[in-house]
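Go through this fold for my students:
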Amino acid sequence: MSTVSKGTAGTTTHFVRNATGLVRELSPFDAFNLVFSAVLIPVGITQVFSFAPTFWPGANVLISFLLSLPLVFCFGMVYLYFTVAMPRSGGDYVWVSRVLGPGIGFLTNLTLTFVFTTWISFNFTTMLTLLGPSLGFVAGFTWAPDQLTQFLIATVLTVVFAGLMVLGARRVARYMLVMFVVVWLGMLVWLIGLAMTDHSAFVSNFNAHSGTTLATVVSTAAKAGFSSGAGLDWAGTIFAMIYAFQVFTGFQWTGYFAGEIKNVRRTATFSILGALLISALLYILGSALIYRTYGSEFGSLVYLGFNVSPSPLSFAPYLPSLVKFLSLPTFLQVFVTACFVLSVLWWTPTGFMIATRNLFAWSFDRLAPAGVAEVSERLHTPVIATVVIALWIELLNYLNIYQGLSALLINVIAVMALAFIAVALAAILMPFTRPSLFEEAPAMVRARLLGIPVLTLVGIVMLLSWAFVLYVTFATTAFGKVSLLSMAEAFAVPILGLIYYLIVRLIRQRQGIQLSAAFREIPPE
């Protein structure tokens, strides 16, 4: 641990220093692009239409998205209000620790940081190996990397993105802008291709280029046990809302890097609500076009590809693979599929930024060594924090590829749900337990409805929403069987985090530092 720093009068200061050293240089669009990339629509919609038709064949994902929107909106409002009230790097770590206490705030944020960093590594080690073969199928080549190749690719990507993050937020924003243009040019072509291809054209293209026929797929899937049932499965549709919560998560993340955005109130509102609105429209439009183009046979195709081993299909029926059967020229098919792959690299800086700023915030409050909070005067970025996160991601790369970590992370959404429930609880209680913080917040945060703080109301909706998610993770096998091993792995980080926090608190007490003193006030800018 670091040595104790002193204030000007010789007394111990609550924070590592009197200013963060971070610079507010991210524009409203930069913030929007970061959180919009975190929603990661190309990957999210691929996951939803790979899993939901398998687990709930009669579910309508389009309706699931529509039903979830009011709930997700309240989720976003909690993060928006807190971001405006306490615009500091670290997001929910700062908010929850100031309302519910440093231990709960640290464990909540540590858990979410763990989830976000696993997503970075998962994309490097798993999504690329899933989406890469789709690109090969569409472009006419075969790509099946062995473990060593996967690990080398993941390592190179980790080093490259760590280097990009060290160069500073401004350069990250430029990279994000370029990737935004490329990826969404491809996605717009994809949506146009879906709109241009009616169901009969899809059937014809599939029969001509898949190596089998759609009628054979439907018949084989039925013999293998697939049944879509009769009509709409409302229970399955409601349960499938869990995927909406999973894939929407990210649009509200502006608060994690709030210490580096200009005009916090306007930027947070524009980025959070803008990302939610556009993401919702695109998920709904994409879902409607997928159902229209691929028709009722889509469920049979997915079931056959992911539940029958060995699969009689010559390709995995992910959405990027199905681009091959759209009425588009071959070069556009290849471009669109490549953009699905590139989307993974579009969002990666967002994951890095969130993780490094959270680690920075812990250090600033003396929950991590002071050196982690050091900021380069020239680049205005926490270099040491970035290196630490890169090393952690590299460890996750190894564990994912060689130790099967990604398979054990099957229940991690339960951990994420518990963390978000803690954030919701902080929103519910803040007006009553921390009235000074609430009354000093901007007017939009202090808004009331029928005399009740709106922050409390949206917090209640958020709490109930994530309690539902938590219930679904245990009530179904959609995320794999709930086992002692999988749940122990998922909860290992918060358990170890609690032990770490207790040790740090003891060390700080012996140094004459009462951690609780820092958490009675908002960190300096």
Q: What stands out?
A: The chain has a mean pLDDT of 87. The first strand starts at residue 448 and ends at 449.
